[in-house]
Write a structure and sequence with these properties.
Strand order of the largest sheet: 8-9-10-6-11-12
Distance between the termini: 113 Å
Number of helices: 50
Structural class: alpha/beta
Helix content: 55-70%
Radius of gyration: 39 Å
Strand content: 5-15%
């Protein structure tokens, strides 16, 4: 064995051979890497110590079997197993042979040879263990193993060359040549996907290529190729997206965060949620630093490359090129490729890991929000704060995380940059810290202001979204009352206030951008000044010193700018974490019941609530009855929003399988009693005991999901065909399902809007019946049904052979049906003073008969609901076809986009203003690079003159001033203006939408527009649109600078442009669609949260919390996929452009080193400086363009929304009517929709409209209010309503319907909703006196309806209506009070009444009728009659059938016919 003398030194390159010394190779390429691989062995073992076996059990190689796509037991797989075992054995054998050769060699070798070979042998054995463990216990191949195999493959090639160059080391060279291809084969096999070999079928279903493939497949984003091809060639859907695998499972992410959240060590921390997130995913955080460290190391190799290339160009220009050998010139080319490729790959890998980290935290936070929502009280859950946390706070958290975790690396980069800068300019390197420290200090101060400013802005967003959600949920009722313009004004005012609140944040961000620009342009000026005038350049601007120095300064500026942005982003992130944490710490709903197990021993103890929130330990004794499933023991309970108990000292026990009826007047506490069994009340004293069972619940306030009838009935349970048929049959739904398009697959719409009221009620009942729970509670769940249908269902469920009796369910039913006395076992009554009593239904026949007669008087007529109105609406919806409408909404160009959409945003600002903005962007792009061009001229013309510095500094100062002006105009003026106007357009379309559209469109979809889309308009689109224009101009300037350095490069210009054009086309088609999918997949999450909040009472009662969260997990997983893959394709873009930059740099270097005198040193330095910026600018350009295109998707959605949303017509020739117009009489109309209907009514007449369900009564009222299209004339006071603005018309007509509108405002504003936008500030004494007078009147009206005493205790007229604790019947009374107030304020004498007292008992109904007769005595009143007493005080009646008038007559005659029809009906 023979070595060279130079081989015995660590660093003594052999320039003649262009090779390293052997000792350097042994130390740097063998000892250190092998030692590192062995050091990772315990870490590797620790990582997988608790992991289950994921892949089919084989000692080593089953992951490689995928490359042949064969079964693991096949002969081919066994052959492959033997092959790979041979491969590893050969590698170990070769390493052992190398050790033997070194050991037996003569002394003519380095002193590290044996140690290096021995350690390599140990590393080869370690390789066997790593492959084995990594294969069995991981769903994908190890990145550490892949990097090690690639590195050792390259090392073997280097060793092979070195050994063969020395002549007498051929044996070692042969061993290295043998192991290199073996390592390559193993590397290729490690890249194969394990998906087909996963043991768990469910795991296989959720795992895609990235989750199961090798490291380099992930690093080079090869798993995205199928998706890119699909997105380029066709329309991309969520089903086409890559599955994320187990690492991103929402369930597991939630579990990790929950474990840390409950950790006592951080539970007392002020930033508990922040630290919980970081501790939960700490290993993901650690992995990010590995490629970042590699990236930093390679980044600072670039200035030395520039120095070498510039020196070569200078030597060639001086005809001294022979001093640079051909080997060195080739080495420069190789170094260029190595540096730029490694730079691109490491940067993409670090960003990819950081994005994965942010995605995991996003998923964990949303899952945590989901879980918390299920634990809140019903009232707290409905406040919609969680929607703001999802749309704004979590997005800002994800944005700030990537900057936050990079702060340590930024500090390291700056420190390394200063160190390497000293290599070129000595002690002047510290001048770079002056602007860095100054701007960072300013940024730190700004962050102290910007974080709270962002939090205040998000709070305003939360308020607007909450109000928008409230209005959208009740929009049909709001429009019927004519409140559309009022609510539109309020929501738009909130948007304006929100934008005004954003101005401080925008101001601080403008200052930050100005500071950033000063740092960007001012730092080189300060460094050049210090180096030229003090020390470093020796008072001469030499290209070999200046441009490497500027390169290092540029590399320092990159992390500096990151730090500037990081301060504000991190403070905003922390503020968002704090807001989310405050939500997480909200008081949770406390179950007011004591759940117990009757089989538990009598001596056992358990915590029992003594009142709402506190516990005592109480012996668990046997109940009054061993079969009692529900027991009240001296219980005094109140609604959750009240303090004083409504029901006192309740003592009763309900037996298993019993059926009990709850009978009491309206407002006496029936719902409170039933909610006490659900644990939704406050216990002032005593206890409510229930078994640990689920409870089927059906309330008059119906809750249905926006899905099919079948899915609503089945709920979160498993489908059982027989149980389903029985439930449908018992609830009289068979005929309805047969008529509906799609049968039981018919989509019911938001909260069942696509069904009639009766159908909704019966679907809700069917859900309770299908559940077959131990307890079934029906709280006025038959109120929307006609008496015949309700009675039939009652006997089918609770009769002698009723379905609920057969399932042995304990039933509690609250209803006004007198037949209930015949089917129940017990009667529970509530007195006026809140005392509850229970007696057997047949113990006292006379009392039972009295109760039945009382109930009969309460519902003596056909209990028709408003089904005729709703079914007419439903028939219109079938024509509309919501599914087809949704498809039309998605028909806009997802792939190619449209330039016309940009005009929508431009027009919202003003075209002239935007043109001026473009000119400023062009000036800024040119001005930013003029100082560098100026430096080149300086170095060439007069390198020793200091007077040129003044021009250099002035150019930089001018660019700083320009950027300040530009950012102020963009963010503080134009962006605010556009955000307000676009929101106004969206709001106008929504508020003018037809009733059919509103009832067929998911609330979550509309809400997503007001949340997600408007967030894009306000925060994202302005920045991206400006950056696109600015970066385009910058890239043009950069390309011109690069091409100017070497004339030979001009020939490559078309190829560069073609590559950029192809990349952007290939990228944009997919990324644009991905953004669409991202927005679309958030809508179901919004809908889920809204539906969950609305149905919280039902979900908890049925015991569906866990199953409902599972649904949320699935929706969150669907939302995570486009979010994460969008980030992946952005990093794919960075990687591809980085590789393109490497090609450009290679071409430039090739031209410089192989074409002597083709350029000057200063030109090369400037060009290389531009190359360093080229990748960054290209990435920023395409990312900005993509951000613009994907954000413009929101504009496309807005345009499509405006185009496809049916609008209520505006009058072509508006009638000139006074603002205080008070209509007196109803219409004469001849509408074809009601078939030749003609009617004339004098002012002051009282008209009763009679007819069976579907006869057209409610359609008549809807036509009068302008909701239905008609031919002919509909006149009020001789004015055709077609000539009136519909909102104005509805505001002047007093309407009372069954659906009660309830706003999150004070009682006063709910009574006078048209004054919501009036300011309470700066009231004059006269206005205060006027208000006091009005308040007296309001109190009088509330007292007349027996509503005042309940709210007087809560704060009177200034109390929030949501805190009143009103029952559904009392809310109907409140609507009547609102109508009376409106009548007095406007003087309107046209009143429309439809099912206004459907939830009142007989006594209260009678009292209410008297109040209404007095209030509307001089008015024209049209009443849809559902009970006989309703038409006793009318002047005449109109009987309708199939949209036609059949008879007209006096009320007495019609009352007889009414009673006869009722008798025949029953």
């Amino acid at each position: 064995m023979s070595t060279l003398p130079a081989d015995r030194k660590v660093w003594n390159p052999l320039e003649d051979m262009f090779d390293f010394s052997l000792k350097f190779e042994e130390v740097a390429l063998q000892l250190i890497p092998s030692g590192i691989s062995l050091a990772f062995l315990p870490i590797f073992a620790y990582r997988y110590r608790n992991e289950p076996i994921y892949v089919r059990s084989s000692p080593l190689l089953w992951a490689k079997l995928v490359c042949f796509r064969c079964d693991w037991k096949s002969p081919a797989s066994k052959t492959l197993t033997a092959i790979v075992q041979v491969l590893v054995a050969v590698i170990i054998g070769c390493q052992a042979a190398a050790v033997s050769l070194h050991k037996d060699a003569t002394a003519d070798q380095t002193d590290t040879a044996v140690a290096a070979a021995s350690l390599e042998l140990a590393a080869a054995i370690n390789l066997l263990f790593m492959i084995y463990v990594g294969h069995k216990y991981s769903t994908r191949s190890s990145g550490l193993l892949a990097v090690y195999l690639l590195f050792t493959f390259a090392v073997d090639i280097v060793k092979c060359r070195s050994y063969f160059l020395r002549g007498e080391l051929d044996a070692l060279g042969g061993l290295a040549a043998a192991t290199a291809p073996l390592r390559l084969v193993l590397l290729i096999l490690e890249e194969r996907s394990k998906r087909n070999l996963l043991l768990d079928e469910s795991l296989r279903e959720i795992s895609g290529s990235e989750a199961t493939s090798g490291y380099f497949t992930r690093s080079f984003f090869l798993f995205l190729n199928p998706m890119f091809v699909s997105g380029f060639n066709s329309e991309l859907r969520n089903a086409d997206l890559e599955k994320l695998g187990l690492d991103f499972s929402s369930r597991l992410l939630h579990a990790k965060l929950e474990n840390q959240w409950d950790d006592e060590s951080i539970s007392s921390s002020k930033r508990r949620l922040f630290w919980a997130c970081f501790y939960a995913f700490k290993w993901d955080l650690v992995l990010i630093f590995i490629p970042r460290l590699i990236n930093i190391a390679v980044t600072f190799a670039q200035p030395f490359l520039i120095e070498t290339v510039t020196e070569t160009a200078e030597l060639d220009a001086k005809n001294e090129g022979d001093k640079v050998s051909s080997g060195k010139r080739g080495g420069i080319q190789f170094s260029t490729v190595l540096i730029f490729v490694t730079l691109a790959v490491s940067k993409a890998a670090a960003a990819h890991l950081a994005n994965g980290f942010a995605t995991k935290i996003r998923g964990a936070l949303i899952a945590k929000l989901m879980d918390k929502t299920h634990k809140l009280s019903e009232r707290e859950a409905k406040k919609s704060a969680v929607l703001t946390h999802m749309s704004s706070d979590i997005e800002d958290v994800a944005k700030g995380l990537t900057n936050f975790i990079d702060i340590p690396m930024v500090i390291l980069e700056v420190a390394a940059g200063v160190f390497f800068l000293s290599r070129f300019i000595g002690s002047s390197c510290f001048f770079v810290l002056l602007p860095v420290l100054g701007t960072n200090f300013i940024s730190f101060l700004l962050s102290k202001k910007s974080g709270p400013a962002m939090a205040r802005w998000n709070k305003r967003i939360e308020i607007r979204i909450a109000k928008t959600t409230e209005v959208l949920r009740q929009l049909p009722a709001i429009k019927m009352l004519g409140l559309g313009p009022t609510m539109r004004e309020q929501i738009q005012r909130l948007r304006v206030e929100e934008m005004d609140m954003s101005r401080p944040y925008r101001f601080y961000m403008g200052l930050l951008n100005m500071t950033q620009q000063i740092a960007d342009l001012g730092t080189p000026v300060v460094v050049v000044a210090g180096a030229f005038f003090w020390r470093g350049f020796d008072h001469k601007m030499s290209s070999t010193r200046v441009f490497p120095t500027l390169a290092v300064v540029s590399l320092i500026q990159g992390p500096t700018l990151k730090a500037l942005l990081a301060y504000t982003d991190v403070t905003a992130m922390l503020a968002c974490f704090e807001r989310i944490q405050n939500f997480m710490l909200l008081p949770e709903r406390e179950d007011s019941r004591v759940t117990w197990d009757p089989s538990a021993p009598a001596g056992s103890y358990e915590p029992v609530p003594t009142h709402y929130g506190s516990l005592v330990m109480k012996p668990q004794v046997q109940a009054q009855s061993p079969y009692g499933i529900i027991q009240f023991a001296n219980a005094s309970i109140a609604p959750a929003e009240m303090e004083a108990p409504l029901l006192t000292e309740i003592n009763l026990s309900l037996l298993r399988g019993s059926v009990s009826a709850l009978v009491a007047p309206t407002g006496s506490g029936k719902s409170t009693f039933l909610k006490g069994i659900l644990g939704e009340t406050k216990n002032a004293a005593g206890y409510v005991y229930t078994d640990q069972v689920s409870i089927a619940y059906c309330d008059a306030n119906i809750w249905l999901r926006d899905t099919s009838i079948r899915d609503n009935v089945v709920g979160c349970l498993d489908y059982d065909a027989e149980r389903y048929r029985e439930a449908i049959r018992a609830c009289q739904l068979e005929e309805d399902i047969g008529r509906l398009p799609g049968g039981d697959g018919y989509l019911v719409g938001p909260n069942g809007f696509n069904l009639s009221g009766g159908q909704r009620q019966r679907v809700s009942l069917a859900r309770a019946v299908f559940a077959q729970c131990d307890i079934t509670i029906i709280d006025d769940g038959l109120s929307s049904l006609d008496r015949r249908t309700a009675t039939t269902i009652l006997f089918a469920l609770c009769g002698r052979d009723g379905l609920l009796r057969r399932t042995d369910s304990t039933v509690l039913i609250s209803t006004y049906l007198p037949e209930v006395v015949d089917v129940v076992d017990h009667l529970i009554t509530i007195s006026e003073d809140g005392n509850v009593a229970m007696e057997g239904a047949h113990e006292n026949p006379s009392r039972s008969l009295m109760i039945a007669e009382q109930l009969s008087s309460e519902r003596s007529g056909v209990s028709e609901d408003i089904e005729d109105k709703e079914q007419a609406s439903i028939r219109r919806l079938w024509i509309l076809d919501p599914a087809r409408a949704a498809e039309e909404e998605e028909a806009y160009q997802r792939q190619k986009g449209s330039w016309r959409l940009y005009l929508v945003y431009i027009d919202s600002i003003g075209r002239l203003k935007c043109f001026a903005l473009v000119l400023l962007a062009l000036l800024l792009a040119v001005g930013e690079y003029l100082p560098e061009i100026y430096i080149r001229v300086w170095t060439e013309k007069d390198p020793e003159s200091g007077t040129w510095f003044a021009g250099y500094a002035l150019l930089a100062a001018a660019a700083c001033a320009l950027i300040t002006l530009l950012y102020w105009l963009l963010f503080n003026v134009f962006a605010v203006q556009a955000a307000v106007r676009l929101h106004e357009q969206m709001l106008d379309v929504t508020m003018r939408a037809t009733l059919g559209f509103l009832t067929s469109t998911k609330t979550g979809n509309i809400l997503n527009r007001f949340s997600q889309d408007n967030n894009l308009f306000a925060k994202v689109l302005p920045s991206f649109l400006f950056r696109t224009v600015y970066m385009f101009f910058s890239s043009v300037v950069l390309i011109a600078i690069i091409l100017s350095s070497a004339s030979f490069m001009t020939s490559t210009f078309p190829a560069i442009l073609a590559a950029i054009y192809f990349i952007q086309g290939f990228y944009l088609r997919t990324s644009r669609q991905m953004r669409h999918i991202d927005i679309e997949e958030k809508a179901p999450l919004y809908t889920f949260f809204c539906e969950t909040a609305d149905g919280m009472l039902y979900i908890r009662a049925f015991g569906w919390r866990i199953k409902n969260i599972e649904i949320g997990y699935r929706l969150l997983d669907d939302s995570q996929r486009p979010f994460y893959l969008m980030l992946c394709i952005q990093q794919w873009l960075g990687l591809v452009l980085g590789l393109l930059t490497a090609i450009i740099a290679l071409i430039l270097v090739t031209v410089v080193v192989w074409a002597p005198k083709s350029t000057s040193g200063s030109a090369v330095g400037l060009s290389f400086l531009s190359v360093l910026n080229f990748q960054r600018i290209l990435i920023m350009l395409l990312e900005a363009w993509t951000g613009s295109e994907t954000s413009v998707a929101a504009l496309a959605r807005l345009e499509q929304y405006k185009k496809n949303t049916p609008q209520e017509g505006l009058p072509q020739e508006p009638e000139d009517v006074p603002e205080d117009w008070a209509p007196e009489g109803p219409p004469k109309n001849i509408p074809p929709i009601i078939k030749d209907f003609s009617l004339a009514v004098e002012a002051g007449d009282k008209v009763g409209l009679l007819g069976r369900t579907g006869s057209g009564k409610s359609s008549l009222l809807l036509t009068l209010l302008g909701f239905l299209y008609y031919d002919g004339r509909v006149e009020i006071d001789g004015i055709d309503i077609k000539s009136l603005d519909l909102d104005f018309l509805r505001s002047r007509v007093v309407s009372i319907t069954q659906d009660s509108m309830q706003l999150n405002e004070t009682v006063r504003r709910n009574l006078m909703p048209f004054t919501i936008n009036d300011s309470d500030e700066d009231l004059t004494e006269e206005k205060l006196r006027e208000r006091q007078s009005i308040d007296v009147e309001l109190v009088e009206i509330l007292q007349s309806l027996n509503l005042w005493s309940q709210i007087a205790r809560s704060g009177g007229l200034d109390a929030m209506l949501t805190d009143s604790g009103y029952s559904k019947g009392e809310l109907q009374l409140f609507s009547i009070a609102r109508a009376i107030v409106r009548r007095r304020q406007t003087g309107s004498r046209l009143v429309l009444i439809d099912e206004a007292t459907s939830n009142l008992d007989a006594l209260r109904d009678e009292a209410t009728q008297e109040v209404m007769q007095e209030a509307f005595g001089d008015c024209t009143v049209l009443t849809i009659a559902h009970r006989e007493e309703t038409i006793q005080n009318v002047d005449f009646t109109v009987v309708m059938d199939a949209g036609e008038i059949t008879t007209m007559g006096a009320p007495q005659i019609q009352a007889q016919r009414f009673a006869a029809a009722l008798q025949q009906e029953n």
